[in-house]
């Protein structure tokens, strides 16, 4: 059993993943979604109007669950990160 301090530390060390809406003019032409990385987090930028607020909220809850429960972990080879938009 983990104590509160250990659990809080493990939570802080988990990468954050979430979906955010992005204005169309900020996305590469022809893309509805881009992956954006920052230290300790990954953000799926979805073009505004392509997803409802309700769906975004539900997807963010699902992402939080799969990461928080350890069902999904991301390990980049040689500390590489993915490109900021799909090819």
Descriptive report:
- The protein is α+β, with helices and mostly antiparallel strands.
- It has one domain (15-76).
- It has two helices and three strands.
- Strands 1-3-2 form a three-stranded mixed sheet.
- Strand 2 and strand 3 (41-47) form a beta hairpin.
- The longest helix is centred in the C-terminal third of the chain and has 16 residues, at 53-68.
- The protein is flat.
Nutshell version of this structure?
The protein is an alpha+beta fold and 87 residues long. It has 2 helices and 3 strands.
- Residue runs with pLDDT of under 50 for 5 or more positions: 1-11
**Sheet with the most strands: spatial strand order:** 1-3-2
H/E series: HEEEH
The total domain count is 1
Note the overall shape.
Answer: flat
Query: Major sheet, described briefly?
Result: 3 strands, mixed
What is the averaged pLDDT score?
78
What is the number of beta strands?
A: 3
Termini, distance in Å? 44 Å
What share of the residues lie within helices? 25-40%
Strand content: 15-25%
What quaternary form is this?
single chain
Please compute the radius of gyration using only Cα atoms: 15 Å
| Helical stretch tally | 2
Structural class: alpha+beta
Output the keywords.
87 residues; alpha+beta; three-stranded mixed β-sheet; 2 helices
């Amino acid at each position: 059993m983990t104590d509160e301090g250990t659990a809080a530390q493990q939570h802080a060390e988990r990468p954050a993943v979430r979906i955010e809406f992005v204005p169309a003019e900020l996305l590469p032409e022809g893309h509805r979604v881009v992956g954006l990385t920052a230290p300790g987090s990954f953000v799926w930028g979805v073009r505004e109007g392509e997803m409802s607020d309700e769906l975004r909220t539900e997807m963010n809850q699902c992402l939080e669950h799969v990461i928080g429960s350890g069902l999904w972990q991301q390990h980049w080879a040689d500390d590489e990160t993915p490109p900021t938009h799909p090819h």
